[in-house]
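agent> fetching stored inputs for the nicotinamide-adenine-dinucleotide docking request
agent> found them:
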Amino acid sequence: MANGAGRLDLDGRPIKPMTICMIGAGGFIGSHLCEKLMNETPHKVLALDVYNDKIKHLLEPGTSQWAERIQFHRINIKHDSRLEGLVKMADLTINLAAICTPADYNTRPLDTIYSNFIDALPVVKYCSENNKRLIHFSTCEVYGKTIGSFLPKDHPLRQDPDFYVLKEDTSPCIFGSIEKQRWSYACAKQLIERLVYAEGAENGLEFTIVRPFNWIGPRMDFIPGIDGPSEGVPRVLACFSNNLLRREPLKLVDGGESQRTFIYIKDAIEAVLLMIENPERANGHIFNVGNPNNEVTVRQLAEMMTQVYSKVSGETAIESPTIDVSSKEFYGEGYDDSDKRIPDMTIINRQLGWNPKTSLWDLLESTLTYQHRTYAEAVKKATSKPVAS
Ligand SMILES: NC(=O)c1ccc[n+]([C@@H]2O[C@H](COP(=O)([O-])OP(=O)(O)OC[C@H]3O[C@@H](n4cnc5c(N)ncnc54)[C@H](O)[C@@H]3O)[C@@H](O)[C@H]2O)c1
Ligand SMILES: O=C(O)[C@H]1O[C@H](OP(=O)(O)OP(=O)(O)OC[C@H]2O[C@@H](n3ccc(=O)[nH]c3=O)[C@H](O)[C@@H]2O)[C@H](O)[C@@H](O)[C@@H]1O
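agent> prediction call returned; pasting tokens
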């Protein structure tokens, strides 16, 4: 329905238009959420970020029919006194801002901890003091390792879901030792979750915490040397896309044995919209948002991406499509990994009736079609440039 007039919430009540202060709106998730809000709802968005490249198409005055409903504010929330005023102007604040790329966790642990904990503190405080609702983005990494990972490899209990399924209200958070700085991110996210929860318990803050499980799709991160630094290491979707575009082997860290469940960004954004528009069902909850049906090892992901990319690009795969690298070589000292991430869906199902829809093959097909269309020419140009002697 255009602009969402006459839309009802899950309990059949009309949804009132609201103003949303979205921090980190220029990132991967933010760009998809802004698009959804503009296309399908009447809500207004105050979009805060240091970058806006990924939402430029929503901001260009001539072309955008929603110029009235989205306003970009170039703000670094570390030090900008306009933040409190913008939180006050909105009915709801959504905080997405964070350093959230594993290559940063152990190489820039201080920035990671500051970004995920210290910089989020004023946002929580302003929401609490001004009685504003907050949707805070955490991560599935707060669960850390599964209990089953501590059992011997062939132990039968490893097959028991109680030893690996991750549940918001019962699973423990299991991190490695302090010198494994990979966990600086998860630990900072866990502490900010605890703070938000405590503001709810002691001061009545209306909050929802989202734990995304590997959301992937178009506009995720960057392709090194094209729209990001040549030496940069993005998340796995962009790393593997980069390798495929350049016809180089995909690098499997420590054998590619870790397991992940990947969810299509568009399915996940549906869940966030339900949270936004059903506060009575979402407030006070922590939600896993993932697709338990899309589990693969990283090696299987590499194999599937190679097949899908051949299909969408029409190019045959290279002879040795993958290569093993050690985590020390790839990420540096202090890297560790989550072994397996299966989200339990009971709470989000009960509260919001939401389920993911898109299979891994289908989401890779649409995502890699986008990657090929967006980057193939630029990569070709960059790689055919003569090397300066
Ligand atoms: N993508 C996923 O699957 C995933 C998984 C788990 C958690 N998350 C969480 O979701 C959130 C968004 O993730 P994303 O994938 O969109 O990441 P992203 O890096 O694409 O987006 C984050 C955005 O926040 C902005 N930002 C960072 N620090 C800022 C500051 N000080 N002031 C203003 N803007 C700032 C960045 O410029 C960026 O545009 C993060 O909190 C992340 O931890 C994402
Ligand atoms: O997306 C999520 O839910 C969360 O997980 C990610 O963490 P992770 O899944 O480890 O990050 P990726 O970079 O996507 O890596 C996934 C796996 O692929 C491996 N990998 C990555 C890149 C590569 O080129 N090769 C490779 O084998 C990594 O070692 C890891 O085991 C990030 O921490 C966050 O974006 C987020 O909090």
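agent> quick read of the result: The first strand starts at residue 19 and ends at 23.
agent> awaiting further instructions
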